[in-house]
């Protein structure tokens, strides 16, 4: 399940891009879900663990991927860490839900990201409630902490 805390926590990783630079494992890039996320978000193709084919920049290393993709990869590969995802665009929302289908993922967020109309299952840690739609999330008292 995707667990969201609105606001900051002391145990969050506030700068996922910096964390990615230091935690990156080349085998992450062989994961089919990682390849899908890279293609969908950055319109780039993983050629090898250290080679991404970008339509804009040509061949780049994983460290040059967008901040959103790097944060998604971290949430997928290191789900026991809490990442601040406000630097991710709404185009990452569906991927956070996908990652959380098979594991518990906890993130912090500074705005009500657009996860679509639903249905989905997101636990709002500020209140403990589980919401299933955009409307439920918008009406939640958890949003007041932003």
Topology, please?
Blueprint: E1 2-6, E2 12-13, H1 16-23, H2 32-42, E3 45-48, E4 51-54, E5 58-60, H3 67-77, E6 82-84, H4 93-99, E7 105-109, E8 122-124, E9 130-131, H5 134-139
Parallel strand pairs: 1-7, 1-8, 2-6, 6-7
Antiparallel strand pairs: 3-4, 4-5, 8-9
What do you see in this structure?
By secondary structure, the protein is of the alpha/beta class. The chain has five helices and nine strands. Helix 2 packs antiparallel against helix 3 (67-77). 32% of the residues are buried. The mean pLDDT is 96.
Low-confidence stretches: none
Shape: elongated
Say how many strands there are. Answer: 9
Q: Order of strands across the biggest sheet?
A: 2-6-7-1-8-9
Largest sheet, strands/sense/barrel: 6 strands, mixed
Radius of gyration, rounded?
15 Å
How much β-strand is present in the residues? 15-25%
Structural class: alpha/beta
Please give the share of residues in helix. 25-40%
Q: Give the terminus-to-terminus CA distance.
A: 21 Å
| SSE sequence, one letter per element | EEHHEEEHEHEEEH
Number of helices: 5
């Amino acid at each position: 399940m995707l667990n969201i805390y609105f606001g900051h926590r002391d145990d969050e990783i506030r700068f996922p891009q910096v964390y990615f630079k230091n935690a990156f494992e080349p085998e992450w890039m062989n994961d089919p879900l990682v390849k899908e996320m890279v293609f969908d978000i950055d319109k780039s193709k993983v050629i090898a663990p250290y080679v991404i084919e970008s339509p804009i920049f040509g061949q780049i290393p994983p460290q040059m991927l967008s901040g959103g993709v790097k944060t998604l990869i971290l949430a997928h590969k290191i789900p026991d860490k809490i990442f601040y995802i406000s630097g991710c665009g709404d185009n990452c929302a569906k991927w956070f839900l996908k990652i959380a289908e098979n594991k518990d993922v906890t993130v912090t967020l500074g705005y009500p990201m657009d996860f679509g109309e639903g249905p989905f299952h997101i636990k709002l840690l500020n209140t403990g409630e589980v919401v299933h739609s955009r409307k439920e999330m918008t009406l939640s008292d958890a949003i007041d902490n932003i």
